[in-house]
Amino acid sequence: MNSETKDIEARARAIVKNGGVRSAVERGDIPQFQSVSTVEALVLGLLNQGVRKFLGVFGHGSTALGEVLSCYEAAGALRMWNLRNETEAAHCATMLKWHYGETAAVVTSIGPGALHAFAGSLAAASNGIGVYHIYGDQTTHGEGPNMQQIPIARQGGFLSLVNTMGSGYQIHTPESLFTALRMGAATVFNPDFPGPFFLLLPMNTQSAVMEACNLLEIPEPPRCAPAASMDRKAFIQATALARQARAVTIKFGGGAASCGPEILELAELLDAVIVPGAKMSGVVPYSSRRCMAVGGSKGSICGNFAMNEADLAIVIGARAVCQWDCSGTAWKKARAVVNFNTRAVDAGHYNRTVAVVGDAKLNLRAWIEVLKKEGFAAKTAPSPWLEINLAKKREWQEFKKKRFENPILFDPLWGREVLSQPAAIEAAYRFALRKGAARYFDAGDVQANGFQIAEDEAYGLTFSDTGASYMGLAASALLCTALADRPVYTFAFSGDGSFTMTPQIILDGVEHGARGCLIIFDNRSMAAIAGLQKAQYGNVYRTKDSVNIDYRALAGAVEGVNALFGGYDIASFTKALEQAYAYDGLSVITVPVYMGDDELGGLGVFGSWNVGPWCDEVQKEHHRIGL
Fold this sequence. Notes:
Blueprint: H1 3-18, H2 21-26, E1 33-37, H3 38-48, E2 53-56, H4 63-74, E3 79-82, H5 86-100, E4 104-108, H6 112-127, E5 131-137, H7 157-162, E6 167-170, H8 177-188, E7 196-202, E8 209-214, H9 232-244, E9 248-252, H10 260-270, E10 273-276, H11 301-309, E11 312-316, E12 336-341, H12 344-347, E13 353-357, H13 360-373, H14 384-404, E14 408-411, E15 416-419, H15 421-435, E16 438-441, H16 445-453, E17 462-464, H17 473-477, H18 480-483, E18 490-495, H19 496-501, H20 505-512, E19 516-522, H21 527-537, H22 551-556, E20 562-565, H23 570-582, E21 586-592, H24 615-625
Parallel strand pairs: 2-3, 2-4, 4-5, 5-7, 6-7, 9-10, 9-11, 11-12, 12-13, 16-17, 16-18, 18-19, 19-21, 20-21
Antiparallel strand pairs: 1-8, 14-15
Helix pairs in contact: 1-4, 5-6, 9-13, 10-13, 11-14, 15-16, 15-23
């Protein structure tokens, strides 16, 4: 062990002993001014911000960082998980923050590995999840092209790339680190709309030493209180609109995750119905009489009806992504919008809008008080507006029930009867509910059926990446059960296509001790896209597989995986779920599911979407509405 390593380990032990950098300095266990490398100062800065979990893949562009991490891990200051794929690392870090609130850092080398992680960061950027990404980068002395850098003669090529996804900083000199950490904290811990922050480490600056580095200069995360709107005029205008309205619908997105009580109270005061966004199951209990099901391009009978017929739309914490409001065509009769959002660009998305900018929870409480002072009160008897929406919700429940009560269909591909995907997903979802287990839904048909089926009474255990709809996220995110401080048992719902995009969980899950179950719903097809092709053109093209894959055998080839077959009926599938849940480790269940034209094989589509040959019609409708 050389003297430099001994110094690093001594600092690490002192920091662990005192609970932080500042405490160690103030108590005199380490001097305030030290000779510290760039990468060690980076690690100290991330520890200052509460980042103690690192995961990814090392390469020639990250060896210096790896050495420092090893010293700090040996002292118990942090933990590094070595994975087999950088996209998997990005997905896991995203869900670790989303589900458990724990901020992690993704570590990669230069070039391809960084690009894999960068692609995966789309999910964090789309859903407003704060995560650190640390990539190796080309050297700053320009001695010639570095292996695996972006092969264009341009300064800061990777910096230009990452800044299109969010915010990044190339640590071009050691002393620039302090600014990088402040910018990173402002992005990752942003109270309005956080996102990924990309720290780029040129290979020649990683080991560069800052002489007499002031350890107390290393920044700590900002403490930002949520901001409330001071615009009283906006609340008065919103109240006037509410008084004139006869059909009010509240639609909310990811920014309303903590606003369930306020949304329910507001709905009672306004005689409104509530439509959750696709990823927001449980914010308002599904059983609430004013809660309709999900709305949007996939949507539901009741959710889309509530949006289509509303004369006043209340939007809370949403970016109005295309499928969220049927590409701008869902509010067919809305004369006005009241939009609660932290960002002006989102609050002003629609025309004829009263924009209330700031923290949704605080602003909803403020408006509720104004409404009460203005004489608004909860209705004792159901109004015609509520009655017709309740009838639509009953219609939706019957629609789903018919499919769940007819779970088996003949599929020519399998040459036998198999479970329909809605029936299989519903069975697994109900099983997870009974066990208090988390549910992660992967992209595609599994995701769409999942958010149509979900009937959560509380928020925080169903997660669906409807922002990026990233194939493979749910399977990779199952690794969170090995990383989280207090993990819950988790079921990852994945199609066969999503699983084969990032199948590393069957290796890394065993390596790091994941405890959960990956369910592979196998229809040998990209069912969501095949269905779209059929609906648009009457032709399914290059979205089916001809290769027979035994996923049970594939997963079972990894020692430690509990590989199970889900069978062809609900009873067999439930038995496999029980066996998986009882296993202290990673289980994988494969269940064949139906793909075809039988209407009982799917949950239907109830809204518009600006894609393919539908664009002209949808765009005309959008401009006709003029919202």
